Automatic annotation (TrEMBL):
Compositionally biased tracts (Basic and acidic residues): 10-22
One Pfam family in the UniProt entry: adh_short_C2
PANTHER family from the UniProt entry: NADPH-DEPENDENT ALDEHYDE REDUCTASE 1, CHLOROPLASTIC, NADPH-DEPENDENT ALDEHYDE REDUCTASE-LIKE PROTEIN, CHLOROPLASTIC-RELATED
Keywords assigned: Oxidoreductase
SUPFAM superfamilies in alphabetical order: NAD(P)-binding Rossmann-fold domains
GO molecular function terms noted in the UniProt entry: oxidoreductase activity, acting on CH-OH group of donors
Region (Disordered): 1-22
Recorded family membership: Belongs to the short-chain dehydrogenases/reductases (SDR) family.
Protein name: Short-chain dehydrogenase/reductase SDR
SMART domains reported in the protein's UniProt record: PKS_KR (SM00822)
Domain Ketoreductase: 41-226
Length: 284
């Protein structure tokens, strides 16, 4: 593959920093038209400082929701997202910590209830990955850390949040095209995303009698800080070129799927995955 889609670049820390990317991701399209689809609702968004999380936060603000942004330690990016939510007429709080820690998950939900007195939407979006060309190179500690961040944290935060979610609430989990296609260099990440897909389907059945819908989004190659902080500069330069559309997607092209799934427009949707992936047919 020789197609160049982005300037070559790399960041040495994960999670990556959105303000250090060039070009920075697009988190809101000029063509987006809000319609108060989430008016009065309160949402928690993990990984909410940047990338898909930032885009979802801004779209939710435009639709009338208040948002709690959960992130690790990317304070500058998180503040930018808070500022954007406020600029678009809503309210936000930013909560820094490790979602892999059950105590922190409890603190997140407690803070949201103390601030707004309710919780309507939970977006489990935080994730990490450690590319290796050979399974023998993948350390057990990295494998366990990826599972802790990507799926154990999802279980922990959802369990705490459920005490406050009422009928009509929505849980949306971020899976990945790698759960369906696999990825030879992302063994840990792909495995967690497969678990997330199964967790989403099973939890949807479990919570259907309570009127709580559980769905997911399985993005393809999206231009977020996770990309330059994961891959070499050469691979970043070709990111997304192998999709039928021949380019990576922008967070602004994914966020409307999260709006739809959280809104009443998706009242008959549960246990489903939306595939925003540039044209890859995965039949899942």
């Amino acid at each position: 593959m020789n197609d160049k889609t982005l300037p070559a670049q790399h960041q040495d820390r994960q999670p990556g920093l959105e303000h250090a990317m060039h070009p920075e991701p697009v988190y809101l399209s000029d063509s987006y038209r809000a319609a108060d689809k989430l008016a009065g609702k309160v949402a928690i968004i993990t990984g909410g400082d940047s990338g898909i999380g930032r885009a979802v936060a801004v779209h939710y603000a435009l639709e009338g929701a208040k948002v709690a942004l959960v992130y690790l330690d990317e304070n500058e990016d998180a503040q930018k997202t808070v500022d954007e939510v406020t600029r678009h007429g809503s309210e936000a709080i930013a909560l820094a910590g490790d979602v892999g820690d059950a105590g922190f998950c409890q603190c997140v939900v407690d803070a949201v209830i103390a601030k707004w007195g309710r919780l309507d939407i939970l977006i489990n979006n935080a994730g990490e990955q450690h590319p290796k060309e050979d399974l023998l190179e993948l350390e057990e500690a990295d494998w366990e850390r990826t599972f802790r961040t990507n799926i154990l944290a999802m279980f922990q935060l959802t369990k705490v949040a459920l005490r406050h979610l009422q009928s009509g609430a929505s849980i949306i989990n971020t899976s990945s095209v790698t759960a369906y296609k696999g990825n030879p260099m992302l063994l840990d990440y792909s495995s967690t995303k497969g678990a997330i897909t199964s967790f989403t389907r099973s939890l949807a059945i479990n919570l259907a009698p309570r009127g709580i819908r559980v769905n997911g989004v399985a993005p393809g190659p999206i231009w977020t800080p996770l990309i330059p902080s994961t891959f070499s500069a050469d691979k970043v330069a070709e990111f997304g070129a192998d999709t039928p559309l021949g380019r990576p997607g922008q967070p602004s092209e994914v966020a409307p799927a999260y709006v739809y799934l959280a809104s009443n427009d998706a009242s008959y949707m549960t246990g489903q995955m939306l595939h925003v992936n540039g044209g890859s047919v995965v039949n899942g």
